[in-house]
Amino acid sequence: MKLPKASFFIAAILALGLFVWRMLEWQFLGGRISTFLYTSIAVLLAIAFGVLFGYKQFRKTKVVVVNDKTRINPNAMMQSGLSKRETEILLCLERDLSNKEIADELFISVPTIKTHTSKLYTKLEVSNRNQAVKRALEISAMSPSAV
């Protein structure tokens, strides 16, 4: 199994941190550095790793790609009663993404995607993805901004 680049980067940082920790421990046990300095460096290293991994874990970078190939007009969808999130999901459905891919792109869970798509189907009066995209294309074509 091939590891992603991010996993390799995290593993390298952890290995480096463990090496630095062991070197400090060796210096401390050999009596070369004081207890105060050892604990201060240990606390600073723990804080640095906590901030680094906390930032990587909890950052919210939301990128929704709306390119020239998108035929659905987001403004027309929101004017027809869809929420912003439902419109984003509809644009992902047009790109034929799976629930997992949509969840990864929008930073929400798969059950939340299923809830939004269910509400989307109800609002558009359809029963599946293909019908939803087709209905959205019809609404986009009828909107004044499409002319």
Question: Brief overview, please?
Answer:
With 147 residues, this protein is mainly α.
Verbal overview:
It is a single chain. This protein is an all-alpha fold. The chain folds into two domains: 5-58; 74-141, Orthogonal Bundle (Arc Repressor Mutant, subunit A). It has helices at residues 5-29, 35-58, 74-79, 84-94, 99-106, 110-124, 129-142. It starts with a helix and ends in a 5-residue tail after the last helix.
Sheet with the most strands, sense and barrel status: none
**Number of DSSP-assigned strands:** 0
* CATH topology label of the largest domain: Arc Repressor Mutant, subunit A
Oligomer: single chain
Q: Regarding CATH, which class of the largest domain? A: Mainly Alpha
The unreliable regions are none
Average pLDDT works out at 81
Alpha-beta classification: mainly alpha
Please state the second-level CATH architecture of the largest domain: Orthogonal Bundle
Order of helices and strands: HHHHHHH
Q: CA-to-CA gap between the ends?
A: 50 Å
Number of helices: 7
Furnish the topology, listing elements before pairings.
Elements: H1 5-29, H2 35-58, H3 74-79, H4 84-94, H5 99-106, H6 110-124, H7 129-142
Characteristic terms for this protein:
single chain; Arc Repressor Mutant, subunit A; about 150 residues; mainly alpha
